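Q: Sequence in, structure out?
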Amino acid sequence: MGDRVNNGLNHKKEIFRILIVDGDEKEIKLLTSFCEDHGYETIVARNSHEAVEQTLQYLPDLILIDEMMPGMKGFEIAEKLKAHELTGHIPIIILAVPGSSPERSTGIAKGIDDFLVKPIDSAEFTLRVKNLLELKECRDFLRHHKHILDEQVAERIKAFEGAFERLEKVYRRIRTGYGETVYRLTLASEYKDEDSGAHIKRISLYTKVLASALGMSKEYIETIYYASPMHDIGKVGIPESILLKKGGLTPEEWEMVKTHTLIGAKILRNSNSPYLRMAEEIALTHHEKWDGSGYR
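A: Exactly. Output:
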């Protein structure tokens, strides 16, 4: 996993905590075994009340929820957790039963991050969990990024107050911080596609050239230069089996690919940063038809 930033220092999380929400003891044992084989710490909830209680108490890095939970169904539990201020950022995988055909696009739009169909394949489980834990790292970075920058700026301004030349150094420090945000997010996109690195750099340069040609302000040009590389960040939520598939996609797979715009906007939303606000709009609309009638 990538390093986390904390008060300007790099810190690598050693153990990830996963909450298993399932009413079947055999499934609990199987999922616990999968998790512990990869060094993850596990917590278990056997009903909706325990799921909410355990999530609030331990704030896990990932939640696995059985679709067919007794009482409140898996989708309902997930929607409740996603609506809570303290737990809405935690990624959720729904464990679907064969033949249930869950409305996946609708589920993703409501906050579900991924799906696994039972019986669980260990290799697929490993990849999906690994991807979502990396996504959680990005989300955590974004959630804490403004606070970190505020602390850094306050320290610099206090130390160099009244000196314009020194304040300029602080500005460069902040801009570097935004550049690091872009870099970390684009790394998440590059994880599944080795060709995306050059594509991301080209997009950044193209938008800068076009914005300049259109006579946009210096501030706008700089903002779109840093924001545009994040247009495909939502692809971290698309299964590799679809994203890297050779040949044509099925209609169902194509609908899943389309959801990367929603996922990207969700990752980037509610930021005070002008870079991330523009990146959210770009992620959501970069496949929109010119007449605004939908995905092209």
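The chain is about 55% helix and 10% strand.
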